[in-house]
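Thread: Modeling a multi-component assembly for a lab meeting

Hi all, long-time lurker, first post. My supervisor asked me to bring a structural picture of a complex we are working on to next week's group meeting, and I have zero experience with this. I have the sequence lines for every component (767 residues in total). Could someone generate the structure of the whole assembly? Inputs are pasted exactly as I received them:
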Amino acid sequence: MIENLVIVESPAKAKTIEKFLGEGFTVKSSFGHIRDLSKKNLGIDIENGFEPHYTISEDKKKVVSELKTVAKRASTIWLASDEDREGEAIAWHLKEALELSESNTKRIVFNEITKDAIEHAISNPRKIETNLVMAQQARRVLDRLVGFELSPVLWKKVRPKLSAGRVQSAALRLVVEREREVLAFEAKSQYRVVAQFIPNGESQESMVEAELDCKFETEEEAIALLERCKGASFKIEEIEEREGSRTPPPPFTTSTLQQEASRKLGFSLNQTMRYAQSLYEAGHITYMRTDSLNLSKLSLAAAKGAITELYGANYSKVRNFKTKTKGAQEAHEAIRPTYLSNQTVEGTAQEKKLYNLIWKRTIASQMSNAKLAITKIEISSPKLQNSFIATAERLIFDGFLRVYSESKEDEGDSQELATTLPQLDIGQIMDPIAIKAIERFSQKPPRYSEASLVKKLEELGIGRPSTYASTVSTLHQRGYVIKESRPGEKREFKEHTLMGNEISLKVKSQVSGAEKGKLFPEDIGILVNDFLSENFSSIVDYNFTAEIEAQFDKVAEGSLVWNQLIDKFYRPFNKLVEETLAQTKHATLERVLGKDPVSQKEVIVRMGKYGPLAQIGSADDSDKKFVSLAKGQLIETITLQEALKLFELPRVVGSYNDQEIVCAIGRYGPYLRYKGKFISLGKENDPYTINEQESIDLIEQYFERERKKVILSLPKIGVEVLNGRYGPYIKRGKDNFRIPKGIEAEGLTVEKIEEIIEKQIAKKSKK
DNA sequence: CAGTGAGCGAGCTTCCGCTTGACTT
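Re: Modeling a multi-component assembly
Sure thing. I ran the full set together rather than chain by chain. Output:
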C-alpha cells in the first residue's frame, strides 16, 4: 500500500516533483494523452449525438496498465496534469481509464514547479471541471470531423494520400497567398537624396552624412533638386537632442524560441525542439512547449541576484510580462534556465548554444532599459525648401543590450546613416562634398521561413506550441511546400552625383531579394489550396479557429452544450462535403504555353500522376512527348522558353574512350551517365551547357574517388575500410561502423578493427 | 538511385494535441 499517487504528464516533471514531495508520495507520468478517438473509421457516432469512441492509444497501453496497478494500491490519487483544456481532459481520461473512484481522486494544478506551488496545490484540491473537459472533447471531435471528411475529398478530387485540416490548411494558405503576393509584386522606384558635408574649416574626418527629408517619384524631380543645389550654401539650422530608451524583449515562449534559434543559430524548428527537449530532460531548462511569459517568483529573485552579481544592481529591473497571444492557455512558465546562476551547461555544442540563448534572453528580460542619446541635425540652404537631416544614436547606458539584442528577419537593405556625429553648433557652415540622388526600389514581401510562419500562426491563434513544428513538417511531408534558398535578382539603379558644379550619372547594380531557407509552395500545394479555398472557404478562413475557440470557451463556461455546437457546425459542413463530392470535377492544374516552333504542336504544362510535367502534343497525339518540370518551376509561372528547354535533356554530351556520355536530370538532380555509371553534376555545372571536356573531367574525378574509396581490404574477416562522405568508416557486410576519433584509418589492424566493432555493437545493444 | 504520364480497382491514405522513445541514416 502506498499513500499518495500523483500523476503528471511528463516524466521529467515527475522526477522533479517527487523530490519536492518526499515521503508518502509516488509520482508517475501519463506521457501526455492516454486515450484518443478510435483510429479506425471516424471514431464518432454522428447519429448518436456525436458520441466519441475512445480507445487507449497503442503506445500507451503499457503506461495505463502500470498506472492502474499503482492506483489500486494508493489511498489517494492526485491528478496533476496541466492547467489547461487538454490537461483537464487528460485528468478525466485518466479517471475513466484507470477506473478511479470519486472519493479518493483529487484534481490539482500548478503552473510553476516550485515547492511552494506544489504544496499549495496539494492543500487546495478540486474536482475535475467537466465543462472544460467537454470543451476539449468538442475541439477534438471537430478536428477529427474536419480532417477525416476533408482529406478523403482531396483523395477523390485531387490525388490520394493528401491531407487537410483546420490548422495545416490555414498554414498552407498563408504560404500560397504570400507566394502570389510576391509574384504579383511590382517594384516601384524612388529617388532619395543623400549628401556628404564637411563642417567649414574642419577635416575629412568630421564628415557628416545627411539625407533629404523628401523623396522623389521621378528622375526629373531628383535631377531638378540637384540643379538647385549647384552653388548653394548650407548651414546647420537646428540641432535636436533627446533621450530615447529601448526595453528588453520578454522571455521565450515556444514560438519566439523557434524564431530566435532560427535567426541566430540557423536551427530548424525540429532541431530547436529536439535540443530543447534534451535540455529539459537534463533539468537545465523549464518546459519548452509553452505560450506563457510568466516567470516564477523564485526565478525573478534568482535573475535579480545573477544580474546584480555579474553587472551591478543598476542593471537589474524586475519585470512581469503579460501575454498578448490569442488563445494562450499559460499552463506553464516561460522557457527559462532552471538555475539562472548557470551561464553554461554540459551537453552537445548545439544544446550549449541553445541554452546560452535562453539564458541571455531570460536574463535580459529582467534587466534595465537601454538609454540612448539621439541627435538630429537639420542642414538647410536658402536655395532649398527641404532640409538635409543627419541623425545619430549614441548609447548612454547599455542596460539589457549588454547581454542580448533581438534579431530581425528580412531587414532589407535600407542602410543606416552615420551613428556618430562630430561636435557641431547651430549656424555652422557646412560645405557639401557630394550630393547624390540614388534610385531605390521598394522590396517585395518576404516569403515565410518555418519560424516566421509559426509566428504568423501564433498571431492568428492557429495551432499550439506542441504542434507548431509538426504542422510545418506535415506541409513538407505532403509535398505542399519546399524549403529553399534562391539568389536575389541583380537590378540596375541610377545614381546622379553633384560634385562641384557637375552632375554625373552612374548606373550601378545591386542584388536584392535573396531568400535563404524560405518556404515555397509546390504545385500540389497550390492545387490543394485553391481547391479548398474555392469549395471550403469557411474552413481555410484565418478567423475560423478564433471563432470556433470562442464557442469552445462558451462550452467551458457551461453556457453551451458541446454536441450542440458540433451539430451546428457539422450539418452545413457535411452538406458542403457531399455537394463537393457530387458536383465538382477532378481538380486539375493545366496551362497552355503556346506552340513548339519545331513541330508546331501545342505545349502544355499540367499535373501528372507523379507530379508536374510539360507535354508537347495534345492528349490524342500518339507521338506526344513528356518531361518533368524542374525543381522550383511552377505550372503557374513557367514560360514557354523554360518549358521547351526542358526537352533538350537527355542529351549526348560527347564520348570518352569510345563510350557515349549522356547528360540528364533525374530524381536526385542532374547527372552524367557513362558506362552504366551515374555521376552527379555538382552545383557548378549546368546540365544544359556542360561540354565534353568538362564531363570527362568529372568522370575522371569520379573514377579517382572510386579508386581511393577502399583504404583497406580484409577479405579474411569480411571487412573493408572505406572512404565515405563523412570520412573513413568500417564496413562489414551490411553494417557500417564509425572509426573513433584520433585513430588513423590507414594503420588499422585486424585486432583493432574487431575491437572497434565489438565495442560499438555492445554500446548499441545497451541502448 | 537516375523514370514514369491509359484505365481499372482493391486496399490504403487522413485530423489536432498531449507526451517520449524506438527506429533508421
